[in-house]
Amino acid sequence: MDPTFATIPTPVVSDNICERCVITVPATTANIGPGFDCLGAALQLNNRFSLRRLTGQEERFDLVVDGPYGAHLRGGKDNLFYRAARCAWDAAGHPPIPLEARISLSAPPARGLGSSACAIVAGLCGANMMIGEPLSREKLLELAIAVEGHPDNVVPSLLGGLCLTSRITSQRWRVVPCAWHERVRAVVAIPDLRLSTVDARRALPRSVSLQDAVSNLSALTVLLSGLRSGNDALITDGLHDTLHEPYRWPLVPHGPHVRQAALSAGAWGAVISGSGPAVLALSSREAEVNVGQAMVQAWHSQEVEAQYHAVGLQHFGAVCKVVD
């Protein structure tokens, strides 16, 4: 895909309607320290959305949740997945389709692993497939960013890999795929706690100093170099943020304690995953188990249930398949 894209003309609507499809979308981790609102990575943790067209013409969205996560989610027109689906149908000039979605999530929602981005991408891709895929992937990406409001999670959810996304002077989005060395492992520790993205954004200052802005630019450059080369010293120096983490760590219960546990167990660095409360540590494969267990134990010592996943980068994003 050409990494630069802008508004794409609405294509001709296809009559090729499918009755069932399955979409798998990777969970993501955003910011990764200094890449606030522009850097995100797809993780080898996949969420599954099985769609079935319902009979009748009345607008309707039913939701079935499989597995331990997302039991609080509900169907209906206000559901984020369905709102994204409506955006795709509107862009294609197609009337809404009554749908049932059966979902299975690999990580709990509201933990900082891109659950809202997954829902948006799945809704857009699924809705597009149900009407014969008239919308290009570039158009879907444009819609996904518009629905989410920022690109850091939705871009890797859709495309996979490590992505740096910015809006250039022409107001077009530019997506830059970045390298992630195979020796770099992502260890995400997920507590049994929820943190609203709205609350996490509300904690941020309206302006920052020139010194802090320069510090983040420098750290991001160093981090990307470390991720590309697998140089742990560069990764350690690059995982330094002054724009959002100082204001968000107080919102993550016992977060600094968990971060220190990761470092003591051999992590190269540890940051808030997205807006939290999950904590992302980067480490070698040899240290990943010790790092994950140490972070979970740090939360357990504070009577907070937690789990961890040690995974690599997922190089592909959302995958859609028609089901016969």
Describe the protein's architecture and organization.
Helices cover 33% and strands 24% of the residues. It has 324 residues and is an alpha+beta fold. It folds into 2 domains: 18-172 and 314-322, 2-Layer Sandwich (Ribosomal Protein S5, domain 2), CATH 3.30.230; 185-311, GHMP kinase, C-terminal domain (Alpha-Beta Plaits). Strands 1, 2, 3, 4, 5, 6, 7 and 12 form an 8-stranded mixed sheet that branches. The longest helix has 20 residues, at 210-229. It is globular, with a radius of gyration of 20 Å. The two termini are 29 Å apart.
Could you give a short description of this structure?
With 324 residues, this protein is of the alpha+beta class. It is built from 10 helices and 12 strands. It has 2 domains: 18-172 and 314-322, Ribosomal Protein S5, domain 2 (2-Layer Sandwich), CATH 3.30.230.10; 185-311, Alpha-Beta Plaits, CATH 3.30.70.890.
In one word, what is the shape? globular
Mean pLDDT: 91
Continuous helix count: 10
Helix-strand string: EEEEHEHHHEEEHHHHHEEHEE
Helical fraction: 25-40%
Low-confidence stretches: 1-14
Strand content: 15-25%
* End-to-end gap: 29 Å
Query: How big is the Rg?
Result: 20 Å
> How would you classify the helix and strand content by structural class?
alpha+beta
| DSSP strand tally | 12
- Looking at the overall shape, the CATH architecture of the largest domain is 2-Layer Sandwich
Whole-number tally of structural domains: 2
Q: Could you describe the largest sheet, including whether it forms a barrel? A: 8 strands, mixed
The CATH C-level name of the largest domain is: Alpha Beta
CATH domain fold name of the largest domain: Ribosomal Protein S5, domain 2
